[in-house]
Structure to design on (904 residues):
């Protein structure tokens, strides 16, 4: 039995993640030093590249948008007691849904028709791709981890098949659909801020960033303020207790995976409607998996997920800048840094927690003692 | 009233006393903020049965764990047979002649009884050689102690009583002269308990010292020579059994007077039938029949107790009546609605029809342990309009209701933001009762009302159940504690292997009669 003191909330949510992040940076810095680079330089370039310029910040937030969607997707499933590894496939399908709608409507219909239908399609396709593993889990006992992994491969193969055999314009050499009409283009941040009278550089960042923030707020209210969320969390924490309460665990599996798939599917709005303007391969490129790390580090809470998404967005953008600026520093080094962050902030998040807690607690007691010392003096004065 | 023994006396006057077997002096053990043992002194005379009683968290298990080497005391000394002993682990304890029988048996189910005894005590590399010596030594032990166990039977085929005897044999085989038994009768029928006590008495005659940890004071009075009462990590009383009584021990344990026995006898005659099941058959996933055509009716203003050894269909019965489990055959009427197998009610329908259910397994079912108290306090009722409006949870109203429940049922600490798992068993149970009684149910199903609950809270829970009965509720109590059935019920139904083997009004119930019925034999 351990004699550890319970951790106070502010230490767990405020101090520990920061300390974990610093440890990850230290470890990565040591490796950077080992390969003969200056860790301080690398870090400076990374931060400056990610946040230093409006353009850099734009790219960071563009990556952040996708990670918020996939991170939320993992978190909602997690609160329902499910580990959805299928964010990747659900995001691919969401993009496919959005793309098909764009190819169908964007040449004939105005944007206010096309974009909402694209959003609906990305959500419906994401839900559909999550619903099959959910059904198999709930009613047939096939583990959702295995089936969602399989559905990732199915999704990417399906996309290749459709692009190569049906959507590629005849005669084209690249595996891409034809370019959508202009009404399928989601407003870029540059145009959006332009309307508000502010200058902003051109970048992939578009207004689906606001959609992502809205989704985070929505997930918060869904999980903690609605009966549906109550039921979902009850099943996720204790299926037996939920069944006792008259909540049907199987229904909740379907609901949790449905929301999860919908959130992942919305990646399609950012990547297909916001950036590419056509269907292509690899537009998700691992974001579904990054979403797992994001949810892990964000403690499955929408606020944490937004912050963790910014962190990973910064690593993607800043990392690209660093590999551009510093000779001999490849993008693989950034992947290594990501690995350390996942290791220390995710997998080993609580390894150093007892020391952090002890340190924080003794710091607080020292502070309060010194305040006590001051108080009598003040009253004398 | 309290004639507290300031200086414990040890002159038992029994012939087989030959000195002090175990002496623990000034034992202190701290877990974080909790002082589990503070300045505990314990002297156990050789060849006696020494009871250690106290509520959950009184420190009795910690003290025994220190003696058996699971924990090391922060300060304090231990002497075994007059010599100072350092006990760092169970191995040290065993070599000093201390054996322990845990509440949850430490047996390998897939090995035979003999192999379980041998495990860890094999004398040579080749098993066949040690098997012969173990077998002959065990036969001697069995003959001399009366601990009959089928040596070649696989453990998972042995009944619970046999497994416990096997545990004792295991300890004796390893040379235990001092035997620690942790709640040994928790899983036994009255008859098996009798048998166990016979064996323990014989062991005492043969010079074995026995330390009995229990909360059943009746058993302490029957078997022990001495008893130590612990409360809040301290020894509050140490007394020879002849100089005390159940009431005095209970008072010392709780720190105030308690009334546990029957109250409000000669209650009003039972009223209308509020819930009735007929011909209920339940088969589990392995096609084993758990209930064979159960017929039970619950009447207004009556507490029906279900007696039976655990696993004889009580759980299935509760689940069927509360809508958690749909039977394969049968019929049920409740609140003017009838249900047939194939279209059974679900738990929410049950609640809407006025059936409240306090489940047997508090941790698995009654609460979501990772929820804060105010979220667990509406579990099952979260759809009520006062908690939920148009799909939105009304947090303020939920919390107000929880604060109110905590106030009325004295749930401590009164903190509705605390995690459900952080409350003690008794306080969790009080919160669950507050929730289930809160909507004025017509039928109240209660499984193991006081499992893991302290004496002080037991008294409170009993009085709540009685007042529900007096208010005209039909109450069903399933309990593995026969004393509880006898203390609460107006009518007792005995289950054995999924069949009702007896149904008696309370004034015809005796422990031995119920015990026979529980074992399935006719009276």
């Amino acid at each position: 039995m351990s004699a550890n003191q319970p951790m106070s909330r502010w230490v767990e949510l405020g101090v520990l993640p920061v300390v974990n992040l610093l440890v990850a940076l230290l470890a990565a810095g040591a490796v950077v030093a080992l390969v003969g680079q200056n860790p301080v330089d690398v870090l400076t370039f990374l931060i400056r590249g990610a946040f230093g310029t409006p353009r850099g910040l734009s790219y960071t937030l563009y990556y952040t948008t996708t990670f918020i969607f996939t991170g939320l997707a993992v978190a909602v499933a997690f609160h329902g007691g499910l580990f959805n590894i299928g964010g990747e496939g659900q995001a691919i399908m969401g993009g496919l849904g959005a793309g098909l709608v764009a190819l169908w409507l964007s040449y004939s219909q105005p944007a206010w028709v096309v974009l909402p239908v694209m959003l609906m399609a990305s959500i419906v396709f994401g839900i559909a791709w999550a619903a099959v593993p959910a059904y198999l889990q709930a009613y047939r006992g096939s583990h959702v981890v295995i089936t969602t992994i399989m559905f990732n491969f199915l999704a990417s193969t399906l996309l290749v098949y459709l692009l190569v055999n049906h959507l590629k314009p005849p005669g084209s050499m690249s595996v891409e659909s034809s370019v959508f009409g202009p009404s399928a283009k989601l407003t870029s941040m540059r145009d959006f801020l332009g309307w508000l009278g502010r200058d902003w550089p051109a970048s992939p960042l578009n207004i689906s960033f606001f959609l992502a923030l809205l989704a985070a707020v929505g997930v918060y209210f869904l999980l903690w303020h609605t009966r549906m969320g109550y039921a979902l969390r009850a099943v996720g924490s204790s299926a037996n207790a939920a069944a006792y309460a008259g909540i049907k665990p199987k229904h909740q599996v379907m609901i949790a995976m449905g929301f999860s798939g919908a959130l992942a599917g919305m990646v399609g709005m950012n990547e297909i409607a916001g950036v590419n303007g056509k269907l292509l391969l690899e537009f998700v490129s691992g974001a579904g998996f990054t979403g797992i790390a994001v949810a892990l580090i964000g403690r499955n809470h929408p606020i944490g997920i937004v912050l963790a998404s910014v962190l990973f967005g910064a690593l993607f953008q800043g990392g690209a800048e660093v590999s551009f600026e510093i000779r001999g520093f490849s993008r693989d080094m950034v992947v290594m840094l990501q690995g350390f962050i996942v290791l220390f902030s995710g997998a080993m998040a609580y390894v150093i927690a007892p020391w952090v807690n002890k340190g924080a607690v003794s710091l607080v007691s020292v502070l309060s003692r010194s305040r006590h010392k001051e108080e009598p003096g003040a009253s004398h004065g | 009233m309290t004639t507290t023994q300031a200086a414990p006396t040890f002159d038992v006057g029994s012939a087989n006393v030959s000195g002090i077997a175990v002496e623990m002096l000034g034992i202190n053990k701290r877990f974080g903020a909790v002082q589990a043992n503070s300045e505990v002194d314990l002297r156990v005379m050789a060849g006696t049965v020494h009871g250690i009683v106290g509520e959950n968290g009184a420190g009795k298990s910690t003290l025994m764990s220190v003696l058996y080497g699971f924990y090391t005391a922060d300060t304090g000394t231990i002497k075994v047979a007059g010599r100072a002993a350092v006990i760092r682990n169970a191995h040290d304890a065993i070599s000093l002649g201390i054996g322990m029988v845990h509440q949850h048996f430490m047996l390998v189910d897939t090995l035979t009884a003999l192999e379980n005894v041998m495990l860890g005590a094999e004398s040579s590399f080749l098993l066949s050689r040690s098997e012969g010596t173990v077998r002959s030594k065990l036969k001697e032990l069995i003959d001399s102690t009366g601990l009959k166990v089928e040596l070649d039977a696989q453990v998972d085929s042995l009944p619970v009583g046999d497994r416990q005897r096997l545990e004792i044999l295991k300890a004796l085989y390893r040379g235990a002269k001092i035997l620690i038994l942790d709640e040994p009768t928790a899983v036994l029928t009255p008859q098996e308990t009798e048998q166990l006590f016979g064996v323990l008495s014989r062991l005492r005659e043969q010079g074995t010292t026995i330390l009995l940890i229990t909360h059943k004071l009746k058993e302490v009075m029957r078997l022990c020579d001495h008893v130590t009462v612990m409360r809040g990590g301290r020894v509050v009383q140490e007394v020879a059994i002849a100089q005390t009584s159940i009431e005095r021990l209970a008072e010392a344990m709780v720190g105030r007077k308690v009334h546990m026995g029957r109250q409000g006898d000669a209650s009003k005659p039972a009223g209308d039938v509020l819930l009735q099941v007929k011909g209920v058959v339940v088969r589990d996933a392995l096609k084993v029949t758990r209930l064979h055509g159960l017929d039970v009716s619950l009447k207004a203003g009556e507490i029906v107790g279900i007696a039976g050894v655990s696993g004889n269909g009580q759980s299935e019965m509760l689940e069927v009546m509360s809508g958690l489990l749909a039977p394969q055959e049968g019929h049920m009427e409740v609140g003017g609605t009838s249900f047939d197998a194939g279209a059974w009610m679900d738990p929410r329908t049950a609640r809407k029809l006025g059936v409240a259910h306090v489940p047997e397994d508090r941790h698995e079912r009654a609460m979501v342990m990772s929820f804060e108290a105010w979220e667990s306090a509406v579990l099952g009722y979260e759809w009520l309009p006062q908690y939920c409006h148009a799909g939105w949870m009304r947090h303020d109203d939920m919390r107000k209701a929880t604060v109110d429940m905590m106030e009325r049922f004295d749930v401590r600490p009164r903190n509705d933001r605390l995690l459900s798992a952080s409350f003690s068993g008794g306080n969790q149970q009080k919160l669950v009762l507050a929730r289930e009684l809160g909507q004025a149910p017509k039928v109240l199903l209660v499984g193991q009302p006081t499992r893991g609950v302290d004496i002080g809270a037991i008294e409170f829970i009993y009085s709540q159940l009685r007042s529900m009965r007096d208010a005209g509720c039909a109450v069903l109590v399933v309990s593995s504690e026969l004393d509880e059935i006898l203390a609460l019920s107006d009518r007792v139904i005995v289950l054995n292997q999924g069949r009702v083997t007896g149904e008696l009004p309370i004034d015809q119930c005796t422990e031995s009669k119920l015990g026979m019925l529980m074992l399935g034999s006719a009276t």
User: Anything to note?
Assistant: Confidence is low (pLDDT under 50) at residues 1-17 of chain B. Residues 127-145 of chain B form the longest helix (19 residues). The domain at 273-365+440-518 of chain B is CATH 3.40.50.300 (Rossmann fold). The first strand of chain B starts at residue 20 and ends at 31.
